[in-house]
Write a structure and sequence with these properties.
It contains 2 helices and 30 strands. By secondary structure, the protein is mostly beta strands. The radius of gyration is 21 Å and the shape is globular.
């Protein structure tokens, strides 16, 4: 089917879907209440130091999973002043208990000796399957045959990590030095298959999606050949997948940029594409299969669309923002590109502006706040880890 007909077909399908929002009462327009850092930082659940080994700095600390009795975090050490150089780095996972004490600490296996541009996504296990850590990186040996990513299986209770298959670079006629994956997510399917997505290149990236087995076998791969951008979110749908794609450059139609909702069949073939009003970040596909995004009006509606295309407006919000995640209680966390996060309750009646802790603060799934502040700005040889109570 020609691409133009695919666009028209997808647009017609979307237009035909019923909307519940048209008949609902006007959604709430909450006035956000400010919660300053001094307010939530006064209620720490625990604090703990983290020091780098001699000759290294703590470059990254990130929560991978919030557990009922603690956290699983990723820590990455680099030599001080790293920038553009392929260096020896150390990456490990820690499980911290409810008091912040280390229950186990294990190095991430399967990484090259020297690399840069590291990224990781955590895929929570369930139904008898263990959790997975999906990593991408730029290896020192960046030949076409080199691996640019690795999947790792994790037993969360005892902290046993096992390296699985690697992720090969995309099959392209030409290769450019420094090309790397921009990893945005991973979607686990049945039969030990994983959809990984994001972008690939040197920047701006070409949007990229691949279906791989856990042993590293690549079943199919698709990427933007007439556009540059990134796949920011995905979900499974009957007969295939749906992706939220942010396109920053296109050719020959240079005006064909912005957010797109793309449909792929089970073999990775593009079968439909429609432009969406959502800005950078696009739609956020949620765990239950629904989708959330902001409209493009001046006072922007936060909308949720279920699997059947029925939409409802949660709240009317001022200014530009991007939907980041949904919390366990159904509340939404949005980033408004300032030094605050915007939290909107599931019914849209309550909104909170929560001041961030510089760039180290993160609202977790239960509403608690984790920080990993450098004790000295440069170099960051030690960090002060802390977990704070939910501030609302």
């Amino acid at each position: 089917m020609p691409l133009r007909r695919r666009h028209l077909l997808a647009a017609a399908i979307v237009a035909a879907l019923p909307r519940t929002g048209a008949g609902q009462d006007s959604p709430p327009r909450p006035t956000p209440r400010l919660i300053g850092r001094s307010e939530w930082a006064a209620a720490a659940l625990w604090r703990a130091p983290l020091e780098a080994r001699q000759g290294f700095v703590v470059a990254e600390v990130r929560v991978l999973r919030r557990l009922q009795d603690g956290l699983i975090i990723l820590v990455r050490e680099t030599p001080p002043g790293i920038g553009g150089e392929l260096e020896a780095q150390h990456v490990w996972l820690e499980r911290r208990d409810a008091q912040g004490r280390v229950s186990w600490r294990q190095a991430v296996p399967g990484l090259p000796d020297r690399f840069e541009r590291f990224a990781a996504q955590y895929v929570v296990g369930g139904g008898g399957r263990r959790s997975l850590l999906v990593t991408t990186f730029l290896p020192a040996d960046n030949r076409r045959a080199a691996l640019y990513g690795r999947m790792v299986e994790i037993e969360e209770t005892a902290g046993m990590l096992r390296a699985l298959g690697g992720i090969a670079r995309p099959r392209m006629k030409e290769s450019i030095e420094g090309e790397v994956f921009e990893l945005h997510g991973a979607l686990r399917l049945e039969d030990d298959r994983l959809v990984v997505y994001g972008g690939f290149g040197t920047g701006p990236f070409r949007w990229w999606i691949a279906l791989v087995r856990l042993d590293g076998t690549k079943l199919w791969e698709t990427m933007g050949h007439t556009s540059a951008g990134e796949v920011t979110s995905m979900r499974g749908v009957p007969g295939g997948f749906e992706a939220s794609v942010h396109v920053v450059m296109a050719w020959p139609d240079t005006a064909n940029v912005g957010g797109f909702r793309m449909r792929f069949d089970a073999g990775g073939r593009l079968v439909g594409s429609v432009k969406t009003p959502a800005g950078h970040g696009g739609l956020l596909f949620l765990a239950d299969g629904s989708a959330a995004a902001l409209g493009e009006e001046t006072v922007r509606p936060l909308e949720v669309e279920d699997r059947f295309g029925r939409r409802r407006s949660i709240a009317l919000l001022p200014g530009a923002a991007e939907v980041r995640r949904r919390l366990d209680d159904g509340a939404f966390v949005l980033s408004d590109r300032s030094d605050h996060d915007l939290v909107v309750s599931a019914d849209g009646r309550v909104a909170l502006h929560i001041e961030r802790a510089v760039s180290t603060g993160e609202i977790l799934a239960d509403g608690t706040i984790f920080t990993a502040a450098c004790e000295k700005d440069d170099p960051c040889a030690a960090r002060a880890l802390a977990l704070y109570r939910r501030p609302w």
